[in-house]
Specification:
2 copies of one chain form a homodimer. By secondary structure, chain A is an alpha+beta fold. Helix content of chain A is about 40%, strand content about 15%. In chain A, the strands form 3 sheets. Chain A has a 5-stranded antiparallel β-sheet with strand order 1-2-3-5-4, covered by helices on one side. Chain A has a two-stranded antiparallel ribbon with strand order 6-9. The longest helix of chain A has 27 residues. Chain A is globular and about 55 Å long. At the A-B interface, helix 2 and helix 3 of A face helix 2 and helix 3 of B.
């Protein structure tokens, strides 16, 4: 269960008077997600998601909320933060920083085909173009700096084999940084469960709370490692081809980006192997139910290293 | 036919690359509306309305577009302008100022009942609350100053009886101004055809191009004169009561506002009688098909004066 902070209907109805969204009609906790407390909120005006931030530093929240607002007003189907009557996106509820965002329609899909991979590739490219005019800056919070911190935290918990793999990959990545690739705000967590589909079209991208500024191409690699897996953890050529072709139809890759692809795929695998190891060995209270198996991304990393 | 400026599909598809909304799939002129050229635009991303501004001064357009953006991010279901890749709402197309806004779902209703009047009343109040934090200022472009200008233009075309009625009402209104009533951005044209309904709920308010800053209560009077008419042009008590009660549940009226209600209803009738006379006697080329009969609001004005 990922809802840490309970919210009562009467309390929420009173809190909603800070907004111009009408009266509360229904409140339902959302069990998915491991970082925040989330609720579906239905009012006389519409459908929203209420998020109470349990982990993120308050100083970073404006980056995420303003990024979603920026992308939404560029036509990207992402949750749009609702401003309160004081014209602020960030409120407090139950002593926690809290925000109300629009709820998108659609459902996530478990087994994407080429068509769905093309949809997500095109949307990712549109998101990257729209993000270029976003002014705020936050370094990717799960980027190379964090990899090294996480690796140090994890040291006591890893087998000799795991430690060797981790050290070797960190050394490889340190030798392959790309300061000249196009950078900008990236979602950095656009897995299948963070995309919604409706009638075969992508209708939403959700959960921007791992976003930051990084190589745009890294975002594509994060996607590919989840959307395009074959049964042996390799990239299935048809789906990976569809994702990349649709991306490039909107934002063509530079030669330097193309050359960096294998390294990006390894970086994307490393990042999720590390965070899943971290969640597994050093869980925060209340989040165990949704901890993912670290072995999945270890296998993906080994597969990318071998290819 | 209200589309003055023709737009070709190839031209629009190229123009849309200024945005991150995907490729053009369909383009359809909108025949309603008498002030701008409007098109329904469907892209691989979603459904939009393209507006080419034919009449409004370019300097005033940011007030309207930023107001819609402000209200949309407060959760008001109004068209949300889409920012282009340079982060601007206002573009140019075919030499005209142009903007792309979201297309809302729903249809307008011709014969509202108490429930629909309550829906529009509550939404109007939420819009007024959300508008309070809007920073830009534009005087209601169809306010008292414009009444006098329009009356002067119309003088040669009016019968003696019409002139007498107009002069008398202008004199009455000049004696009854309310500088102390709550003011803010008002829609100022929220007739039935500018509201969309879906499954019995109000799903959209459209056409903000007569908006400006004025008494909030005036906006309610404009609504009531259209939504709550009985067969004799009076206000039907059940519908007017539903509209006002729903409005007051969100934003209670002050005693001064309550006292000003009969004057507001007359002001709202006068404004539309004048603009319809103006469109009738001094039409712009191409707009005749949609010119409304001025007699309708003359009768409403006479009815409000008598009651």
């Amino acid at each position: 269960m990922s809802v840490y902070t309970p919210v009562a209907e009467a309390e929420l109805d009173a809190w909603l008077r800070n907004y111009s969204v009408g009266r509360l009609q229904a409140l339902e906790p959302i069990k998915a997600g491991i970082e925040n407390s989330n609720y579906f909120v239905t009012t006389s005006q519409g459908r929203y998601v209420l998020t109470l931030f349990e982990r993120l530093p308050a100083s970073e929240l404006p980056f995420y909320l303003d990024l979603m607002a920026h992308l939404a007003r560029h036509g990207i189907p992402c949750p749009a933060p609702i401003a309160d009557l004081a014209d602020q996106y960030l409120q407090r509820l139950h002593g926690k920083p809290a925000a109300l965002v629009t709820r998108l329609s659609g459902t996530s899909i478990e087994r994407p085909g080429e068509r769905e991979c093309a949809e997500v590739g095109a949307l990712l490219a549109r998101m990257h173009l729209a993000g270029r005019s976003y002014g705020a800056y936050l370094e990717n919070p799960r980027g190379p700096k964090w990899w090294r911190l996480a690796a140090a935290d994890l040291k006591p918990f890893l087998s000799g084999e795991e430690s060797a793999l981790l050290e070797d990959e960190l050394a490889f990545q340190a030798q392959h940084r790309f300061p000249d690739l196009p950078r900008g705000p990236v979602h950095a967590d656009l897995f299948r469960d963070n995309a919604l589909f409706e009638e075969g079209r992508i209708s939403g991208v959700i959960d921007f709370y791992f976003a930051g500024v990084d190589c745009l191409h890294y975002d594509v690699a994060v996607c590919a490692n989840d959307w395009c897996l074959d049964a042996n953890f390799g990239l299935e050529p048809a789906r990976a081809g569809a994702l990349l072709a649709a991306y490039e139809a909107v934002r063509p890759l530079t030669p330097a980006e193309r050359a960096a692809w294998p390294v990006m795929l390894r970086a994307a695998a490393l990042r999720f192997w590390l965070s899943r190891l971290h969640d597994f060995h050093l869980p925060r209270p209340g989040m165990l139910v949704h901890a993912h198996d670290p072995a999945h991304f270890r296998t993906i990393l080994e597969c990318r290293r071998a290819s």
